[in-house]
Amino acid sequence: MKIKVCGLKYPVNITEVTGLEPDYVGFIYYNRSPRFVGDITAIDLTSLPSKIIKTGVFVDEDAQEINKLIDEFGFNAIQLHGKESAEFAASFKGRVEVLKAFGLDENFNLNQLNAYVGKVDYFLFDTKTDAHGGSGKTFNWDILDQYKLDVPFFLSGGLSLDNLAHVAKIKHPQFYGVDLNSRFETEPGLKDIQKLKQAFSLLKQHTTHEIRS
After folding, report:
1. How far is CA 142 from CA 55, 130, 133, 149, 168, in A?
2. Which of 14, 118, 141, 194 is deepest in the core (most CB within 10 A)?
3. Whole-model pTM above 0.90?
């Protein structure tokens, strides 16, 4: 199971988080988010360990701006968290990994995902909110039982130390990774390293157990 830590914005904290060796780290380029990256520089990100996949998170951003930031900050992946079309997502595929996020609730129509097959690398399933993520709320994970496409997904939305043990038991064949964010913070964008250490330990223990089994 891959681990993504999203919503980083403070250089010292970024270094502490990457020292835990997550698989992905996410940086939010949506200025209405309390986790907007602000004054992070290219040097802050290009010096991170190369094996960690640096992910730029965008909400209905212009393609030219996304491409500029990919070049400037050396992103290996982008996460599209707005209403981006399948064609828009496909224009980046092959250059970087492409994650397309969707907010799920009981009324979500899974058929709308069909258009993105072959045009994105991963889906990210979050809790449906007006704020494009970061709500700290979970959705009904039973919805995932209806997901049958051949595209791996990250699970996001309200993941915490209180529910990660349950998350780790999800057996869906396309369940690829978790996205840790607001429930692992002392304030928006400032990650609680001790909580993350506990989460990493729990998730990695489960993954090791699954491999041995």
Report:
1. 28, 22, 19, 16, 14
2. 14
3. yes
